[in-house]
């Protein structure tokens, strides 16, 4: 204990003081969000991020470990204004404190990202981003329409690539603002004009890189619908590779940059010459191989050998045909004998059941002479009724003299 100005103060070691500070900071500020500008950003090979957060008056060290860094939708850099959420930690050996960041978003972009995600889900549910709606690009377009700013980096990059790869391709620029309030309307009108007048075989719509706010025009809902409805295939080339806009999902193809879009629509002259040369070489190799095979076959040509191979192939078929024919003949003979037996049996049954056969056994048929009806009993008969009697041989007329029941 020491006395200072008449008051007793507890004497602490540096370690004890640091532990007290550590406990106060880590327990009292276990969850906080800090907004500041990134400086001295380093992405370690391990995947962890180390950087400082600063404003005009102060700076704090920060670290974001690999597992949490994977969820950040952008790549931070020096000068980026971000909101970092995490907890404070004290490094006792140096008496330094830092913030361990668990989540990070660009300052001012959180609401925009939420809006874009909601719009993306809604348009996707309508089928505007469906893979089956996307069409292949023409391999050799004669004209390319570029809807972008006439003074931006995008058109310069596109023209540079096309001059190098395919100088003979026609490029039609449809000027439009690429950021600001008027940009979505002008971009949509440019797209509609290209379709209305069929200005080209493929459309590139895009711009160079920028902040999320700068790229918002390309996520306008009406523009996205216009891209999806385009009759001409559309390439969306917005910003740099890490940037994105909703037109990327509605277009038939997304290019990482405007330069990449130009490469997609232009076949390099050298590449086409190499492809043709490769095809010619493959054709020559195939023709030589076939000619050599033909010479080998003709060199081994032997009529007797061919006839022998032919007979070996045909013999099983001929033998099978003979066996099938013999089987058919035997089957027909057996069926004819059986049919003859059945016919004789049926004939005997028919003859035994015929009226002539019955009459020949002593029976006769009696008919009413007036009606011709066959009499099967005495019903309707009276004495003196005339009847006809049919015998096996001949017939006779008679009258009823007596009726017995």
Descriptive labels:
405 residues, alpha/beta, Rossmann fold, five-stranded parallel beta sheet, 22% strand
What does this entry look like structurally?
Helices cover 42% and strands 22% of the residues. The protein has helices spanning 14-28, 66-69, 110-125, 153-165, 183-196, 221-229, 246-250, 258-265, 269-299, 303-353, 355-360, and strands at 2-4, 7-9, 32-43, 49-54, 59-64, 81-91, 96-106, 143-148, 170-175, 202-207, 234-238, 253-254, 365-368, 386-390, 395-399. The chain is built from eleven helices and 15 strands. The N and C termini lie far apart (156 Å). Helix 4 (153-165) runs parallel beside helix 8 and helix 5 packs parallel to helix 6. A hairpin with a 5-residue loop joins strand 3 and strand 4 (49-54). The chain has 405 residues and is of the alpha/beta class. The strands form four sheets. It has a five-stranded mixed beta barrel with strand order 3-4-5-7-6.
Summarize this, please?
The protein has helices at 14-28, 66-69, 110-125, 153-165, 183-196, 221-229, 246-250, 258-265, 269-299, 303-353, 355-360; strands at residues 2-4, 7-9, 32-43, 49-54, 59-64, 81-91, 96-106, 143-148, 170-175, 202-207, 234-238, 253-254, 365-368, 386-390, 395-399. By secondary structure, it is of the alpha/beta class. The chain has a five-stranded mixed β-barrel. A five-stranded parallel beta sheet has the order 9-8-10-11-12, sandwiched between helices.
């Amino acid at each position: 204990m020491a006395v200072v100005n008449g008051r007793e103060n507890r004497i602490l070691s540096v370690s004890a003081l640091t532990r007290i500070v550590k406990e106060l900071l880590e327990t009292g500020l276990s969850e906080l969000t800090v907004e500041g500008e990134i400086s001295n950003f380093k992405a370690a090979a391990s995947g962890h991020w180390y950087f400082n957060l600063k404003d005009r008056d102060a700076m704090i060290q920060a670290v974001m470990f690999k597992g949490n860094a994977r969820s950040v939708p952008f790549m931070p850099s020096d000068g980026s204004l971000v909101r970092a959420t995490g907890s404070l930690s004290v490094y006792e050996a140096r008496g330094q404190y830092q913030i361990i960041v668990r989540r990070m978003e660009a300052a001012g972009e959180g609401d925009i990202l939420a809006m874009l995600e909601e719009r993306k889900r809604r348009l996707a549910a309508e089928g505007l981003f469906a893979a089956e709606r996307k069409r292949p690009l023409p391999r050799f377009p004669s004209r390319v329409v570029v809807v972008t700013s006439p003074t931006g980096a995008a058109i310069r990059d596109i023209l540079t690539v096309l001059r190098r790869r395919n100088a003979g391709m026609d490029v039609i620029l449809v000027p439009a603002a690429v950021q600001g309030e008027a940009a979505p309307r002008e971009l949509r009108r440019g797209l509609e004009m290209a379709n209305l007048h069929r200005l080209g075989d493929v459309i590139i719509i895009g711009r160079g890189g920028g902040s999320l706010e700068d790229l918002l025009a390309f996520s306008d809902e009406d523009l996205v619908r216009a891209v999806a409805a385009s009759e001409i295939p559309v390439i969306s080339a917005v910003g740099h590779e890490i940037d994105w806009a909703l037109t990327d999902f509605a277009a038939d193809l997304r290019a990482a940059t405007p330069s990449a879009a130009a490469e997609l629509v232009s076949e390099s002259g050298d590449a086409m010459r190499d492809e043709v040369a490769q095809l010619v070489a493959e054709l020559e190799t195939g023709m030589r191989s076939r000619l050599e095979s033909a010479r080998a076959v003709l060199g081994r040509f032997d009529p007797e050998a061919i006839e022998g191979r032919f007979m070996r192939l045909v013999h099983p078929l001929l033998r099978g045909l003979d066996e099938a024919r013999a089987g058919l003949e035997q089957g027909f003979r057996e069926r004819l004998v059986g049919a003859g037996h059945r016919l004789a049996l049926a004939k005997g049954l028919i003859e035994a059941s015929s009226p002539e056969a019955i009459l020949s056994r002593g029976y006769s048929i009696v008919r009413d002479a007036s009606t011709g009806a066959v009499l099967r009993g005495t019903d309707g008969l009276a004495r003196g009724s005339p009847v006809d009697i049919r015998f096996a041989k001949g017939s006779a007329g008679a009258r009823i003299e007596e009726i017995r029941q």
